[in-house]
Amino acid sequence: MERNRPLSQQYELYTSEDFAVWRALFERQMHLLNQYGSHYYKAALNTVGFEAASIPDFSIVNKKLKAATGWQITVVPGLVPAAAFFALLARRIFPATCWLRTMAELDYIEEPDMFHDVFGHIPLLSHPAYADFMHAFGQLGLRWNDDERKMELLSRIYWYTIEFGLIREDGQPKIYGAGILSSPGESLRSMAPDTKRSPFQVPDILDTPFRTDVLQEEYFEIMHLDQLTEILEEVAVIMRQDAKHSVFL
Length: 249
Ligand SMILES: [Fe+2]
Known about the structure:
Layout: H1 16-36, H2 39-48, H3 58-68, E1 72-75, H4 82-89, E2 93-96, H5 114-121, H6 128-143, H7 148-163, E3 165-169, E4 172-175, H8 178-181, H9 184-191, E5 196-199, H10 202-206, E6 218-222, H11 227-245
Parallel strand pairs: 1-2, 3-6, 5-6
Antiparallel strand pairs: 3-4
Fe (ii) ion (FE2) binds next to helix 5 and helix 8.
């Protein structure tokens, strides 16, 4: 469908439907995330000040992020090519859309909108360990962005952490990945008793392709937030070894 894709957030242009969409999505997700969301995410939601009653104002959110971890949001019209995306992350800038789906699209949208980009991705950027991990991810992506095979492997790490990651808290799986946080279907699927949830092991993830057009069939759990940095260090070593010996895959 034709969309207006602003290149800056002009807050006064949001309509009453936009506010109603944000509220409906926010309330529906919090109903699930109060129980299933990582405590890191729920605390971070308070840090950035997101609430059902108002669409986040990037100028205010950016002040809070700056003070917490130095991250900033920049507005983009839609998906950003991988190399440009990593270059932004390496400067602690997260590209986000500022348009919202319509009421008619509440349950399904083909591409990420502001609810996914902002509700899903932004809060945890106020947490120092997560913020540093995302920054390091950008640097690693920049280092290898001319190597198609390594970019594919990095995208698997991205997919099973930043988008669809689970974290074990008090013996239970909890949600921290943006693709789950912003989707009721993924939230319920990831938490269902018969869903496959496996410990996050880097070699397994590098060997696990993903699909973007279906609910996930398997989710991977980290044990603590600092593990994200350890994962990236392990990936960096594997990639350097691969570059030297061409033994990996
Ligand atoms: Fe995303």
